[in-house]
Structures are given as structure tokens and as C-alpha cells.
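Dear H.,

Thanks for agreeing to be a second pair of eyes. The structure we're designing against is below in C-alpha cell form, covering all 211 positions.
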């Protein structure tokens, strides 16, 4: 399957999730400007396809804006290395999302039935199961790609040789092995067949409560 068809299917998977999750999300208390998830969890994961969409959007920005975003991504990577909680690089000063229409699935799946505090969001158990199934579908679709924190995925996709190989359908995990091991990058085709490891990527926050 070529990358254009895959991107179309990605959108279909998102849409399908939204339709099925709607009855649960209708009870959410989330409001525009509440960025608890974007600030406190720090595990905004993405698959390579999602990274490609965001990368291509970054390329359309004017140069100073591109430099600014890349600096934020790089700062985010460094802070994560020190294991400090750091806001998502795409969070704006007004606590809205700069890439809302192209945000990765790890953001799309989240909502909360109660106002988030230190105890984190509360979601329906059925919605968690639905999200797990959706992650599996995404990783199967992106079988020549990877999953990991959004900043690391964007770092990989910004490299021309990696990007061109990926876009052409090529797959060479050995080339990214040291980076992948260091930053917890997951090979999609290795996890998409294993229900045990699905949530290692594009995961829900660890302190989520299921209802
Ligand atoms: S991509 Fe957008 S919604 Fe997701 S964590 Fe970042 S700012 Fe929040």
C-alpha cells in the first residue's frame, strides 16, 4: 500500500474511533484551554505516519516559525532525557493545541469524566478497550514504521534519508537501532501482532482511572 492510501486509511481509523467513542466522550468534562493532559503526562506518543503529517505541516511554516518549533521539539527531547515532565512542544501559550486537526491518536483517545487533578483523568473501561484496538489497527497500518514519543518520532522523520526510505515503503530498523533503543522507539510490526505490548506505544497515561 502506498503512503497516500495509508494516510487516507489513517483518517478512516480516526473517524471510526470517533464514531464509536462518541457515546463515551459525550460525558466528558474536557474544555478548550484545559491542557492537563498536554502538560502533566509527557507521554504524547505517535506513529511514524502521524509524525510525517506533522513534519509536512512544519515544512509549510515560515522559516522563523520552523526554527522555533524545532527548538521546542529539541528542548522537549532533552527534558525527557532528564525524565522531567515537560509540556508538549505543540501546546500554545493559551493552552490550546497548535496541531489540533492533525494531533496524534494518543491525544484523540483522551477525555475525562472528572476534572483532572493530580489523580489524572477518568475514562470508561469500554473506551480504553476501544483505544487499545485502535492502536493495534494503527500499528498494523503503519507496519513499516515505528511508535514512540512524538518528539523522537519527529526527530527521526526530519532526517531526509529516513523519511525518503519510509515514504517509499522501505524498512530498515537496524539503521535506527541505537536511537530506537535509547529513546524507547517501538517497531510497529513487532507489536501489532502482540496484544501484550500494544499499549507500550501511543499509550494512555499510567495514572488514568477506568470507570
Ligand atoms: S499534540 Fe496537541 S493535544 Fe496533543 S498533547 Fe500536544 S498540545 Fe496537547
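And this is the sequence the design step returned. I haven't edited it by hand at all.
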Amino acid at each position: 500500500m502506498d503512503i497516500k492510501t495509508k494516510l487516507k486509511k489513517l483518517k478512516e481509523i480516526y473517524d471510526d474511533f470517533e464514531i464509536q467513542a462518541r457515546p463515551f466522550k459525550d460525558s466528558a468534562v474536557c474544555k478548550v484551554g484545559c491542557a492537563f493532559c498536554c502538560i502533566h503526562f509527557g507521554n504524547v506518543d505517535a506513529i511514524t505516519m502521524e509524525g510525517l503529517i506533522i513534519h509536512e505541516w512544519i515544512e509549510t511554516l515560515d522559516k522563523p516559525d520552523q526554527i522555533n518549533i524545532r527548538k521546542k521539539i529539541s528542548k522537549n527531547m532533552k527534558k525527557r532525557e532528564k525524565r522531567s515532565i515537560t509540556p508538549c512542544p505543540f501546546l500554545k501559550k493559551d493552552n490550546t493545541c497548535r496541531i489540533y486537526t492533525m494531533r496524534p491518536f494518543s491525544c484523540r483517545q483522551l477525555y475525562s469524566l472528572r476534572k483532572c487533578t493530580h489523580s489524572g483523568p477518568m475514562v470508561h473501561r469500554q473506551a480504553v478497550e476501544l483505544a487499545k484496538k485502535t492502536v493495534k489497527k494503527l500499528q498494523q497500518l503503519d507496519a513499516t514504521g515505528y511508535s514512540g514519543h512524538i518528539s523522537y518520532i519527529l526527530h527521526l522523520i526530519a532526517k531526509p534519508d529516513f523519511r525518503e526510505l519510509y515514504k517509499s515503503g522501505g524498512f530498515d530498523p537496524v539503521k535506527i537501532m541505537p536511537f530506537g533503543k535509547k529513546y524507547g522507539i517501538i517497531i510497529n510490526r513487532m507489536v501489532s501482532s502482540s496484544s501484550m505490548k500494544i499499549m507500550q506505544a501511543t499509550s494512555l497515561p499510567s495514572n488514568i482511572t477506568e470507570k
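Two observations from my side: Strands lie at 45-47, 122-123, 146-149, 186-187, 209-210. Residues 195-203 have pLDDT under 50 and may be disordered.

Warmly,
E.
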